[in-house]
Amino acid sequence: MGEIEGRGQRMIALCMLGLVLFNFPILALFNVPGEIFGVPVLYAYIFAAWAALIALMAVVAER
Amino acid sequence: MLHGPVIVLTAFAYLGLLFAIAYYADKRADAGRSIIASPYVYSLSLAVYATAWTFYGSVGRAASDGVGFLPIYIGPTLMIALWWLVMRKILRISRQNRITSLADFIASRYGKSAVIGGLVTVIAVIGILPYISLQLKAISSSYSILVQYPEVVMPDQPGALTVGGDTAFWVALILAAFTILFGTRHLDAAEHHQGMVAAIAFESLVKLLAFLAVGVFVTFGLYNGFGDLFGRAAAEPRLAAMMTPIEGVAGSYASWVWLTILSMMAIMFLPRQFQVTVIENLEEKHLNKAIWLFPLYMLAINIFVLPIAFGGLLHFPDGRVDADTFVLTLPMAEKQELLALLVFIGGLSAATGMVIVETIALSTMVCNDLLMPVLLRMKRLRLNQRPDLTGLLLGIRRGAIVLILLLGYLYFKLAGEAYALVSIGLISFAAVAQFAPVVLGGIFWKGGTRNGALCGLIAGSLVWLYTLLLPAIARSGWLPLGLLEQGPFGIELLKPLALFGLAGLDQITHAMIWSMIANIGAYVAVSLSASPSAEEHRQASLFVDVFQRGGETGGARFWRGTASVPELYNLLARFQGAEAADEALREYAAARRLRWPLERADAELVHHVEVQLAGAIGAASARVMVASVVKEDALSIDEVREILDEASQVVAYSHRLEQKSRELEAATAELRAANERLKELDRMKDDFVSTVTHELRTPLTSIRAFSEILRQDPNVELPQRKRFLDIITKETERLTRLINQVLDLSKIESGRAEWHESQIDMKEVIADSVAGMGQVFEEREIQVETRLPEWAPRVPGDVDRIIQVILNLLSNAVKFCEPGRGRIEIALAQRDGCLRVDVRDNGPGVSAEEQAVIFDKFRQAGDTLTEKPQGTGLGLPISRHIVEHHGGKLWVESGAGGGACFSFTLPLARVAAAA
What are the DSSP calls for B137-148, one per residue? Predict the structure, then answer.
């Protein structure tokens, strides 16, 4: 049971992390002109953060 | 060449392929070798979330406000992180209660209420209609566009062919026929549609591949990668603003947040998502992989949305081409026939997947939670008397499928044209979000009641109707627009798009805020205002505590009444068919090792039948049906509470019992060990007594024998007489020695021996002992060598006892030495905080077997049966006891034939005194 609860808590933490990453004001920090590797900053940020979040979820879920 | 017939033929061929996949999967499932029992298929089937709305609409939304489409996929990602807590619980509850749909789930939670089930069904059907119409619109308009290849003409523009007009109608009918084939070929008690799931998973692959193909074509075919594409877009003044697409006002972020929340709800409570995630789930552990695979799918299908949107905007600068169609029109404009056809098939996949699952889910709800409870209550229909209702159930579902699709078509005709794809979809999202409070509240909060859920649902959906659906209909021209602009009857405060003056937000945010306030407010307030009924209390407890309560039998504890087996059987047979009913009861009997046929209908059987039935007709109807054949004693709320309390007490009690029994087991093991030891000691005592008496008898016998000779025969010669008297004296001495030693040993063993502690000079002790034995050594001509160090520290101990030990060892050595050639060596050394004494002889030695036993009482080296014993057999045991009392050790080293060396140690400081 402890292991299952631990995983649940890590998942909640990830959800909260996501809520922070994809929300005002963090989002506003990247809502600026400019580009990373030719991709507008905001787009690059959102997709990178999203991929990172999914990777973390995979680590927690599959452990 | 893309002519109408080619496109239609391709579409049908594709649908035929899907059906073949479904057919194959069903066959495999029947044979018990499911092809969908894999986390990958499960994850792909979840991707039914990506509909035509994703396929065409995301690009449309991206073209107007950049990243605005992303919350619809990021929200689910965040929600799925919580699935580990929420969805596992829903899965477990659904499995235990054989939930058949979302409506069934909610109805079952709130006291198996048919009213709630019906209400949820109505909300779901009305709420989802726009969404279904969206799919019809997507298919028909993509067809209308594609058929005009190579021209790129929008269907609703002048110059367009008129085929578009009723394509949607035919699409609706074809999809209805197809869904009926997929979903209602037969009645599955568990509501698993394995064939459908396999087809959906395949469609998810197709739509992903098609979309990625377009993305790659636009990004790397039309342009030189992302950098080039975004760079050119940024160079256009009208597109440059979209590089920072979120405007810096609160409203934009608010709508981003609300869209996120909305899609978090949608991923759980869209009827089709509930169907594939919960109802079609085969194993709970599939969730582990789906938790990250499905978000990954959403990420993948979204990567090229922005490039395609910018590509389209650059390619069709005059705005003549609807952005919703960029995915299709870009390949068409570039004369990529095959790619365009692939896109059409991809869009078809996305749309048909959604429609099939959604209508199956909705038709199950309409049948089980809306129509059946009503029909079963209508006494005139005499449904209770019909022997087999499976045909009726299938008929209702098929009818519902056709009806839902036709209603979807109707909505498309009435309102569909006025809105972009995304806006239509969001209206549906907002509708199903109304289920969130009652479901999430229902599985984590026991206080939610039936009336609370009812009020919450009604309040929330009325607000939704007023703020979202009504404006949609008004905008399509079916209601006066004045309603929106001035409010009903000119009351400004009631304007549907700015209720109570809340303006400045987009329509969805506005509607979500008000409907959630109404929904949650009513749910909580009404739930708290009155206490729940017995049935509600019981269901709440079963749902919320699903992980604490074990197994399906949990519900049986709440039932009291009488029932008969044949009646229950008939009931099952009517809804599941005779064969399935028979099998269900046999399985039940086999699992509980009951005699077949069943004789007694107890609470557990009744509960089992009700759960089985719930799998076919929903919890509320099953309740009604079971109640109609059994005589039930209603439980009062107090009794239910009592049973629940009892249950928790029983749980606590059994925990305590387990602990006690563990303690008992430990104690028993200890006792058993102690008992073994006592038995061993007892046996040893018996042995000892019998050995002692045997040892005493030997000398006694010889004493008596010689005494009798002397008494009976007075003529014995004097030398002879003297010899006999010598023997008698010797044997008497031996007897005395034996008795003394036995007494000594028992004293030492029982701890009653007296010890006279002093500081011993071992050099002196050894010298004295050797001197004392001098006579014996001389008699037997044995050489004795003493090797003592210059100086040895004194050791604490009883000097007489130590002398006893040394004498014993010396006399043992003498005994085994051959007279004349014997040689004994006695040495003293200091080592490791001990004084060590070695007594070495050159006798025959002690064999390994003998070494093991010579320290036991009455065991002597040599064969005691054939040779005359030379000692009492108590010397070594006593010596060992004495040495051990002093905290030292006594042992023997010997190779047979090489002489023996007995050694003992005495510690210089006593660490712990033995007894």
Answer: HHHHHHHHHHTT
Q: In whole angstroms, what is the distance from residue B128 CA to residue B431 CA?
A: 8
How high is the mean pLDDT of chain A?
Answer: 84
| Nearest residue to B570 via CA among B584, B557, B589 | B584
Distance from CA of B244 to the nearest CA of A (A): 5
Q: Which residues of B812-835 are buried (b: 16+ CB within 10 A; e: fewer)?
A: bbbbbbeeeebbbbbbbeeeeebb
Structure tokens at B447: 């206080």
Residue B61 has pLDDT above 90, yes or no: no
What are the tokens at B282?
A: 């085969």
Average pLDDT, chain B: 81
Contact B82 A12 (CB under 8 A): yes
Residues of chain B found within 8 Å of residue A62, distances taken between Cβ atoms: 288-289, 292
Q: Which residue type is seen at B175?
A: L
CB atoms within 10 A of CB B58: 28
Q: How confident is the model at residue B158 (pLDDT cuts 50, 70, 90)?
A: very low
Confidence check: pLDDT of B913 > 70: no
Give the integer Cα–Cα distance in Å for B730 and B740.
Answer: 15
Mean pLDDT of B215-230: 88
Model pTM score: 0.68
Between these two residues, B110 and B637, which has the higher pLDDT value?
B110
Beta-strand relationship, B900-907 and A35-36: unpaired
Give the ipTM. 0.94
Q: What is the pLDDT of residues B556-611, one digit of tens each?
A: 566 666 677 787 887 788 777 778 788 888 888 888 777 777 777 777 778 788 87
Whole-number Å distance between alpha carbons of B601 and B595:
12
Q: H or E segment at B129?
A: helix B114-146
How many angstroms separate the CA atoms of B569 and B483, rounded?
57
Identify the band that residue B458 occupies on the pLDDT scale cut at 50, 70 and 90. very high
Query: Quick one: pLDDT at residue B506?
Result: 79
B55, two tokens = 């396929």
How many whole angstroms separate alpha carbon B531 and alpha carbon B492? Answer: 39
Give the integer Cα–Cα distance in Å for B307 and B299.
14
- Give the C-alpha separation, B518 to B520, whole Å: 6
Q: Is the dihedral of CA B719, B722, B726, B728 positive or negative?
A: positive
A26 CA: distance to closest CA in chain B (Å):
11
Of the pLDDT bands very low, low, confident and very high (cuts 50, 70, 90), residue B526 is very high
Buried b (16+ CB within 10 A) or exposed e, B432-465: bbbbbbbbbbbbeebebbbbbbbbbbbbbbebbb
β-bridge mates for residue B841, sequence order = B824
CB B539 within 8 A of CB B479: no
Amino acid at B448: G
From A14, A33, A38, residue closest to B231, measured CB to CB: A38
Q: Is 90 exceeded by the pLDDT of residue B547?
A: no
| CA neighbor of B508 nearest in space, from B63, B68, B53 | B68
Q: Would the pLDDT of B241 be above 60?
A: yes
- In angstroms, the CA B890 to CA B905 distance is 7
Whether A62 and B67 lie within 8 Å, measured CB to CB: no
Inter-chain touch A18–B291, beta carbons under 8 Å:
no
In terms of pLDDT, which residue wins out, B705 or B150? B705
3-class DSSP assignment, residue B783 = strand
Contact A44, A51 (CB under 8 A): no
Find out whether the peptide bond into B471 is cis, omega within 30 degrees of 0. no
Contacts of B866 (CB under 8 A, 6+ apart): none
The whole-angstrom separation of Cα B344 and Cα B2 is: 11
Residue B161 has pLDDT above 50, yes or no: no
Cβ within 8 Å, pair B234-A40: yes
* Residue among B62, B47, B82 nearest B298 (CA): B47
